[in-house]
Design goal:
By secondary structure, the protein is mostly helical. The chain contains 8 helices and 2 strands; from the N terminus they run αββααααααα.
Length: about 250
């Protein structure tokens, strides 16, 4: 049966993962660094941040926090018993969204000379040389490939290829819709940059979820069942509601 995993519950887990990863980057990472450095948060949304204290150390805090959260989720998933399918899928999605975001973000930053990690590199060394951008690109590519392989292994460790691909696509669609819907509530102006960045960070960065795992990848494959869970669905609704009225609407706007 290809429809044994409950779509609503998979969507709920994806929405929770999206909220956790976005909160980790913007609020815990950038916001936490701003406060620790003695600054005041002037703007905090699901994709925009501004600290009253101008410091280059706030730039890498968001990516750094995402990588830390993704790594912790990866370790926790590997240590989780096979029977905890919902927990394992949630942790897998947290890792996937975190690492795809930051790997893709670093690639984009080095190409376009824009973004947190490019600004941090320039803060440390002055105007960045070509070889430093190439090195940064290589690191971003390594993180992205690691995310791809880790996510594929995680999916085939839980599902057969067909069902793993269906779960991954369902999760991607749910996370992108939720990220976009929250960003549309942004009270600031203009609206488009906030929505655009939210969709890039969660949607475009994680687009490999539409295509993995590949056929016969990392065999043998397991078979987990994500059943209907009203507690998970209810939790996702509450988490998203809080996320939408805080980071979605924007704090300090």
């Amino acid at each position: 049966m290809h429809n044994s995993n409950d779509t609503a519950t998979v969507c709920a887990l994806a929405v929770i993962a999206m909220c956790v990863v976005t909160f980790a980057h913007e609020a815990l990472g950038h916001g936490g660094a701003c406060l620790l450095l003695g600054g005041q948060i002037e703007l905090l949304s699901s994709s925009l941040f501004h600290c009253g204290l101008h410091s280059g150390w706030t730039d890498p805090a968001g990516p750094g926090m995402n990588l830390l959260v993704g790594l912790v989720a990866l370790i926790a998933r590997l240590a989780s018993p096979p029977g905890f399918a919902k927990t394992r899928l949630l942790l897998l999605l947290v890792t996937a969204f975190s690492f795809f975001w930051e790997g893709g973000y670093l690639l984009r930053a080095m190409i376009l000379r824009d973004g947190d990690l490019y600004f941090f590199e320039r803060f440390l060394t002055g105007e960045t040389a070509l070889w430093m951008r190439v090195l940064g690109f290589a690191v971003g590519l390594a993180v992205y490939v690691f995310a791809l392989r880790t996510t594929s292994r995680g999916l085939t460790g839980m599902f057969d290829v067909h069902e793993g691909r269906r779960v991954a696509r369902t999760a991607w669609i749910a996370a992108v819709i939720a990220a976009g819907a929250a960003a549309l509530l942004y009270r600031g102006a203009p609206l488009w940059p906030d929505v655009r960045d939210a969709l890039l960070e969660i949607g475009l960065a994680s687009v490999p979820l539409l295509f993995i795992p590949r056929a016969n990848e990392y065999a043998p494959q397991a078979r987990a069942i994500i059943g209907r869970s009203w507690p998970v669905i209810g939790t996702a609704m509450m988490v998203f509601a809080v996320f939408a009225v805080t980071l979605g609407r924007g704090i300090g706007v």
